[in-house]
Amino acid sequence: MILNKLKALNFRNYKTLDLSFDKERNINLIVAKNGMGKSNMLEMLYYLSHLRAFRNATDKDLILHGQKNFQLFCEYENKEIHGNVSVKFSGKKEILLNEKRITKHSEILGKLQTVFFGSNDISIISGAPAERRVYFDIFLSILDYDYLVALRTYNLLLKQKNAAIKSKRNDILFYFDKQIADVAFILIKKRAFLVDKVSVLFSELFKNIGAFKDLALLKYVSSYERNFNTSKDLLDYILYQDKFDFEKGYCIQGPHKDNYYFILNNTIFSKYASLGQIRLGALILKLVQAKCYENKFKTSPILLLDDVILELDIEKQQKFMNEICADYQLFITVTDEKYRKYFNNQNAVRIIKVNNGEVLQ
Ligand SMILES: Nc1ncnc2c1ncn2[C@@H]1O[C@H](COP(=O)(O)OP(=O)(O)O)[C@@H](O)[C@H]1O
Ligand SMILES: [Mg+2]
Known about the structure:
By secondary structure, the protein is α/β, with parallel strands linked by helices. Helix content is 41%, strand content 24%.
């Protein structure tokens, strides 16, 4: 997939932006000192594909100070099909896909495909279980619409069942359990299937790029702590657990409590790996995510790399770059033009210099 055009109006510190890109120069280096608008430019692309900012910001925070609205627009090409996305925000959001208004955000997911690599990604590996759940939920929702539907249904049912427990209605819990078992079974199976695939790719790349002897892998553990062959088996278990949920005052187990473990030599990553290994692990995880999208959609997503390359040592920077620079359109933020030397094919490098929200021509 290729981004051909990007336009912005009043977005973050950009008054206007109008850039065109070409297939031949797929490595776009966004060069500026800190605080000039490099990440803001990546955020435009992230927003056009996810309809939200990647930093904890509301839509209102994205409007250039002193203005009342922002607009973003992009044109992309995917397997020779051209498309465009336009977003306007002025208190409410107006989204157009190929000039047609859309109301459901899920219609955009998977259209302009991007994978974002940021310094905070290490928290996917070393942060709390909830961060991993959110990460894999987004990962899977883009890959598989049925997962997204099951997840939404599960979250709604869970809320309703917890409310019933709170109002001491143990007589109606069974009513939720059948539907919960059906969707929870889908979530568990899809999570396990994805993690098996991700783990194989993750181990391989971690070994190749890191040149470590250590074995890195990923494990998914359902909070039910046992396997179920059918949703009926799961239902029996949930019905049996109801009395414990009722005693506790909420649903103790279920996909909302699942965990994903990053393991290095049989030990939890964050307890054993060096910071450098955790950083590399996070980068590789994102690369595996990109490869999974590629397998599914038969097109390579656009990679957005925000300062992460400079955190690796030189040898790993080179290996990581070799892994990505031929196959993807890249947008990489750097603080100096000298980093162009990492790329073997200099003809593929395009330098975009930014100063205080303006692109220098
Ligand atoms: N809504 C906004 N209006 C104006 N300026 C903003 C807005 N949001 C962020 N900024 C400015 O953008 C700059 C940071 O840009 P950023 O892209 O994060 O920098 P970097 O080049 O270091 O990645 C800061 O100077 C910040 O004040
Ligand atoms: Mg930045």
